[in-house]
Amino acid sequence: LNAWLRYAPxxxxxxxxxxxxxxxxxxxxxxxxxxSTAARELTQGLGGIFGVRLAASAEPxxxxxxxxxxVAQFTxxxxxxxxxxxxxxxxxxxxxxxxxxxxxxxxxxxxxxYGAFHYLSLVAQGNVSDFSxxxxxxxxxxxxxxxxxxxxxxxxxxxxxxxxxxxxxxxxGRIREDLTRxxxxxxxxxxxxxxxxxxxNVNANATLLHPELMDSLARIANVFRPYGIQLGFSLNFxxxxxxxxxxxxxxxxxxxxxxxxxVTDNLYARIPDMAGYLVKASSEGQPGPLxxxxxxxxxxxxxxxxxxxxxxxxxxxxxxxxHRNLNQTVDWKADRxxxxxxxxxxxxxxxxxxxxxxxxxxxxxxxVREPVSPLFxxxxxxxxxxxxxxxxxxxxxxxxxxxLAPMWKELLDFDLRVDSKPSRLSDILNGSRFNTSISGYAxxxxxxxxxxxxxxxxxxxxxxxxxxxxxxxxxxxxDILTEWxxxxxxxxxxxLRVITEISMQSWPAYENYSGNLGxxxxxxxxxxxxxxxxxxxxxxxxxxxxxxxxxxxxxxxTVKNGTGNAGQYPxxxxxxxxxxxxxxDNLLLWFHHVPYTQKLKSGKTVIQHFYDAHYxxxxxxxxxxxxxxxxxxxxxxxxxxxxxxxxxxxxxxSLVWRDSVNNFYLNKSSIPDEKGRVGNY
Length: 681
Ligand code: GCU
Hints:
Blueprint: H1 13-16, E1 23-26, H2 34-50, E2 55-56, E3 65-70, H3 71-77, E4 93-98, E5 101-106, H4 109-124, E6 131-135, E7 141-145, E8 170-171, E9 174-175, H5 180-191, E10 196-198, H6 211-224, E11 230-235, H7 239-242, H8 254-270, E12 276-279, H9 296-307, E13 313-317, H10 339-344, E14 355-360, H11 375-378, E15 383-389, H12 405-413, H13 425-429, E16 440-444, H14 460-471, H15 477-488, H16 493-514, E17 552-553, H17 571-578, H18 588-591, E18 594-595, H19 606-629, H20 637-669
The site of alpha-D-glucopyranuronic acid has 8 residues, from loops.
């Protein structure tokens, strides 16, 4: 339950005693304030790690004390003490350690709490030397989205694409009486710098607007507040009709506008610090402004305006497409990947300043490999956030280990070359590239009541890494992992080596056995997005296609002959993807339709690459259980067994992936595997 916040004793704790604080000065002791939470964590943390008992003290200048609070609180309490702190941004913090004298000061209370968690993380990793550091978040939006259902016809507390058990928030269409787990979740999130949680599914149910349920939502906000986490809320666009009894939900209709203002007023009366709304509209059958021929901006602004007097944000999702209009058989140029840019075309200067457009990292849907969504290069006057998915919907659903940080790093480092200038995705998201003010990060997390949170111990590195990337895109996936392993398991050299090896190999291995060369994850598209089913990847109404036939495969997304998607990118990138020679192999089939015999840059044919990659990827997964077994006795039995069970399963399932996919393409193409393996096992 405590994940990386175990505060387990470190080796040689005794040796450090002399350098540790013995007193604690909390600059705000009001119960429920983030600073008092920080004080509690420090007591608990230093107690657990070193066995020291911090004596609470009101003495502001205690020599051997850890002082925690905001910069303003510190100067108020110590008017004669001069401190020199580099500039702190909202939620930033400064830590200064000189022996047992530790000062943790935040720009605000939340920053102080982040600083306390950061300090504890360092000492838990054995770092007790003197240091001074300042850390500021790169972006103000560092949210997580839970896809928890509030009403789900019989299956109580379900979570859409949740693989870690029932909702920690909802049960039987109501908010849980006991919100202990919600509080523990908030604690974990605060420790990695997350500042808001949208608690209900983007496919939202309108009934949550019932006054009694709004009251209960406020209970969740109360549980979050001591951790500096704000509550966000998903809306159903048709609520004025479904819930409010109006005849319309047209965003320009006066009665609809009043309806939403009233909802917002009612929510803020109960939750004055609410973060804002998240809206999925006009997508996958959900209602939205397009129903009334209004623009997406009309839709987003409707909510944004109601939030302005409360400083709330309206996060509007760019995941907009109409699956009813997608027909592969008739239209070679139909392409779901084009939808977002088309729908947002011409809207860039139309959004209210408190709208953030939340864009999935790729143009389709959380696949194992996608190019960065071209929409990031089109919205230049609008704040944007990237939507990452910690819950591994298409990536093994936590039954497979897939450490996602290396994938995120590639995406965030990708340079879109807008106007032929450096335009890394991370610089768009931190606001620097286009001077946007409220950009950032959203992560779909979907934890549940399972004591592992996500259903798998090793999957928690993804949540940890998400927080680190949302704080700073300069983070390094391997360093994050090392930190996480030390905090979650131990700093034993073998433990570090084995978990690092498994995790760092896991994404490439999964890509190899589940769908490579940019073909997408070849999972079953109709039933749950799990397990191999390449046949389901064509002819489906969801627009996730491979266009595989007896001789050829791949989506032609070129301008000259295909869906034109390559042309949605800024010119340098567009010409790279337009041309088969300059398209990287790992996105070849995303952008081009080629014969199975097409030669890759490696010299192999597409089909042989498929065969080999599926063998290679599953061979890597076969090594995971053995590697893990070498840790027997070094990891507590419960976690050891839990992880081993899953790794054995993954090794087996990777063979199923390998053989189903390879056999499928052998049957389709009739081209045998050069090495004679496929079909002969
Ligand atoms: C995916 C996912 C859905 C989800 C949708 C979204 O398609 O499978 O469950 O509702 O994304 O992000 O809105």
